[in-house]
Design a protein that fits this description.
There is one protein chain. Strands 2-1-3-4-5 form a five-stranded parallel β-sheet, with helices on both faces. Helices cover about 50% and strands about 10% of the residues. The longest helix has 25 residues. Helix 5 links the parallel strand 1 and strand 2.
Length: about 220
């Protein structure tokens, strides 16, 4: 937790170089992406969210921290790809936030875990209305579509998204994630086919149990 708090301050300061040096140091001690995401990035951003909610930092500070974290995640993924051989498994996954949802960093971490397990990923980011999701899903014929939301009232979008996506001809698996799943029950918005993941650890466990997927992630 101490390293996460240190990273949080560096992100608020927009200090890319020192932030990356901290991540590199953690990578030397553990090459496990799940640890880096769950124990360093996630608590750092949660702390920043708390500081913003309690008016300890401004919106500008929060945006700078988010942008810096986004840069770190992209760089971490790039460095990981250079050092680790990935075996494509022929499966495709889409990642997006429901309409009006702007928080996407957790979703980005999940997408990078999928990539490390050999999936072809399409990361569509925040705030993607359903009509565009359906068009992209029909074109890509994704095997899995991952939805994310972090604001409670955005849960109202889940039912129409899930219902429409699960009716597509190729019948993709719909996975829902977000920080609120650890606090509230959302299964009523989905079907008996819908998968709800509370944490990135759930994502990794699911990936590791998929048939034909090679283990590319260190453990």
């Amino acid at each position: 937790m101490e390293k996460a708090m240190e990273l949080a301050q560096l992100l608020i300061d927009g200090n890319q170089d020192d932030s990356w040096a901290l991540i590199e140091q953690e990578c030397e001690e553990s090459n496990e992406s799940l640890f880096i995401y769950e124990e360093i990035f996630t608590p750092a951003m949660q702390h920043i969210g708390y500081l913003w909610e309690t008016n300890k930092i401004t919106v500008a500070d929060e945006h700078l921290a988010t942008a810096t974290c986004d840069y770190l995640l992209a760089r971490y993924s790039w460095e990981k790809r250079k050092k680790q051989q990935i075996f494509p498994n022929g499966k495709k996954a889409m990642f997006l936030c429901v309409e009006n949802e702007q928080h996407y960093l957790g979703l980005k971490m999940a997408s990078q875990l999928f990539f490390e397990y050999g999936w072809e990923i399409k990361f569509h980011g925040p705030n993607l209305p359903l009509e565009y999701v359906l068009k992209a899903a029909q074109e890509s014929k994704a095997n899995v579509i991952c939805l994310s939301f972090s604001i409670l009232y955005h849960a109202e979008h889940l039912s129409p998204y899930i219902e429409a996506l699960e009716k597509l001809p190729n019948q993709p698996v719909v996975i829902v994630g977000g920080r609120l799943l650890d606090q509230y029950e959302f299964h009523r918005y989905g079907s008996d086919r819908t998968i709800f993941h509370k944490k990135l650890e759930d994502v990794k466990k699911w990936l590791s149990h998929q048939h034909g997927v090679k283990m590319n992630v260190g453990s």
